[in-house]
Amino acid sequence: MKFRGKIVDVGCLNNFTRVVNTISKLTKSCILRLTNDRLYFILSDKVASGGVAMWCQIFQGNFFDEFQIEGVSEEHNEIYLELMPENLSRSLKTAQNAKTVKIKLTMKHCPCITIAVELPSLSSHSRIVTHDIPVSIIPRKLWNDFEEPSVPDFDVSIYLPVLKIMKSVVERMKNLANHVVIEANQNGEMNLKIDTDLVSVTTHFKDLGNPPWVEEGTQPDSFQIRDPAIMAEARIDIKRLLQFLAGQQVNPSKAICNIVSKKVIHFVLLHEDVSLQYFIPALA
């Protein structure tokens, strides 16, 4: 197996760094899947068992000037690696003023993602800073554990408010409760609610808009709520919600929340270069 990539454009490097920084805020460990045309960051905890799940994909052509991969076979030209995204994030912090960044799969004392950062220098010779990030290679027989999650048959789909505003609200609520209820309807209305023995607080958002699933013919068959004013809701861990909101650096052009009543909250962040899905299971 071989992999090597090269980033020269500063804007592309900054965008890639923001994606990695976001992933590092969401999980301590994840799977990096490499294919000919895409990179995927995957967290596949079973939502049904109370874990969160994440699926982030980027098109390598929007970031890399050079990109070569030789997977496990011609038939399966892919590579699956387990790594700690925080280590990747730290390595890229040294590359903010880099002339080039080269990333490749190497074998040192163990399999590594090696990042070589070429920094500008006052002399005629460039300075090279190298980082070796230990990884584990996932065998082919386990790849099916990391398939793209299916979009749930949601009851309501709604555009999120400005994420910074939502984050500010949730930060205040976190000091009052451990859980938050997210409810929304097909009239573009969404509420964040906490309810404890001592306090009840609700923040209302209106005129958010709803994604045009019906017009596009992609509305799930089991779409349950017919009256657009009826709220669908799910109660989730407020720390997980805040972790998701606080980690965002991808500046999405669209941010969507899909609610499966009392089961799961499914967030979708869309950018021209990146798509990120994040699943938070509902609490009883």
TrEMBL record:
Keywords: Cytoplasm, DNA damage, Nucleus. One of its GO terms (cellular component) is site of double-strand break. One of its GO terms (biological process) is meiotic DNA integrity checkpoint signaling. The keyword Repressor does not apply. Gene3D superfamilies: 3.70.10.10. It is found in: Cytoplasm, Cytosol; Nucleus. Belongs to the HUS1 family. Component of the 9-1-1 cell-cycle checkpoint response complex that plays a major role in DNA repair. The 9-1-1 complex is recruited to DNA lesion upon damage by the RAD17-replication factor C (RFC) clamp loader complex. Acts then as a sliding clamp platform on DNA for several proteins involved in long-patch base excision repair (LP-BER). Component of the toroidal 9-1-1 (RAD9-RAD1-HUS1) complex, composed of RAD9A, RAD1 and HUS1. The 9-1-1 complex associates with LIG1, POLB, FEN1, RAD17, HDAC1, RPA1 and RPA2. The 9-1-1 complex associates with the RAD17-RFC complex. HUS1 interacts with POLB, HDAC1, FEN1, PCNA and RAD9B. HUS1 does not interact with RAD17. Interacts with DNAJC7. This is Checkpoint protein. It comes from Scyliorhinus torazame.
